[in-house]
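Sample 1 of the test manifest.
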Amino acid sequence: MYFGDVNVSFTNSAFFMTLTVLTIWLFVAGGMRHASAVPGRWQSMVELTYEFIANMLYDTVGPEARRFFPFVFSLFMFILVANLIGMIPYTFTVTSHIIVTFSFAAFIFLTVTILGLFNHGFKFFTLFLPSGVPIFLAPLLVVIEFISYLTRPVSLSVRLFANMMAGHTMLKVIAGFVISLGAATYGVAGIIPLAFITALTGLEVIIAVLQAYVFAILTCIYLNDAYHIEH
Amino acid sequence: MEADAAKLIGAGLACTALIGAGIGIGNIFGSYLSGALRNPSAADGQRTNLLLGFALAEATGLFGLVIALILLFGF
């Protein structure tokens, strides 16, 4: 399906992104349906996630980050649910494509840089010179700090992408071993890789949640850099 | 040497980055455990930093894995 020159077909990725957003919407809207001051179970869960992200944001940055709460909440919920939906067999993991994670990371990096420049003016560049550095070491340190600042979007995106892709690839490779070991020993020894896969799937679920959390908290830390430069 | 053979050797060598990842992760959790055993009440406050440090150490190892995959399937 083409819109002029651009391919806008509704791919697997688009379908699962829509499914992710739908799941999040059902979770939050369903929980807050009959909202009362004394929360029921579903409303408690929604309030727990709200409070978790709010505490994370306000502990890291401070009260002036209120305007970023919807963004960080949406980011965290999207990555979490996208990762978890990818753990269901026969689904597609949205965040296992570098273009998806790089879009998130590039957006965050540009937001933080522009916000930092807007808030602090040219004093933003004192971020690259930590305090208490002897003067002859300063030029080298500034270069190193600058390069490590520029690799922030790269590391942010590659971390999520590599974790998701490597996890799923490993599961598929060991699943292949189930077939080949099972075929070689009349189905007996195939149980060993299967036990591995069971354990690894549990690990992958933990990693899915952890990577969403790490992405969100690194976003909060980078936002803190935009608001508070204590050098 | 053919390019395919060099690619496979290069991919294998790139995975040695995971040595550092293993050491780093063990270091982080070991420090957290020894600190938590000395001062259990302060352990919960550092849980955030523990998970953050674990993910950052793991990511560095996975960068090596990404290089290996680029070598295998990118060229």
